[in-house]
Amino acid sequence: MMFMIITANLNQVRAQISQAEQAANRPPHSVLLLAVSKTKPPEAIAAAYQAGQRHFGENYVQEALAKQQALGAFDITWHFIGPIQANKTKAIAKHFAWVHSVDSLKIAKRLSEQRGGSNGPLNICLQINISEEGSKSGVMLGQLAALCGEVSQLPNLKLRGVMAIPAPQTDFELQRQPYKTLYQAVMALNNPALDTFSFGMSDDLQAAIAEGSTLVRIGTAIFGARSNREVVGL
User: Which domains does the chain have, with CATH numbers?
Assistant: First the structure.
């Protein structure tokens, strides 16, 4: 039953992405689907994997490590997308392929030092607080160019792009504006290495894709709402 539900949900999300790509005159399959699996059990991730999903995003380090151990036989690409505490950087650096939420040079340096060469470079996105909300992580847009320059020099990291979570809007054009602003700012840096725009979640997927998203982060639409029985610290 779980496999059937998650497969149907994945197919619906994939169709929405395809429709948004077409509406924005984007090439097919130009947007990667990242399944946000925080608080969901390994069985749900396994069901999504069996339905063809390969990229999964986690917010909580200890929970993610337990899932990675349980699903070690699966060829999953793990993305860390949550706030980063300094005392968690070692585990993140060693056990993830991507980190979307780097918001300081200090955190980037720790990830670089703790990555180690055997795993290959760690793919990094800088989190930008595009709506300048005091309650959200991320650097301000005006700091983007300087931080890109600094992070690009660190060994064991590969700076790939930016991530943003704008303030919620219901109007389509208002949803588009912060993504457009950030996309143009990145393009102005004229750095071809910056090829990843981690933009868009369930409620603003279409607007994000219209403004250049290459990766959307979708959780509830795939796995369903979190139940009271689900515990963060697996």
Answer: 2-223 (3.20.20.10)
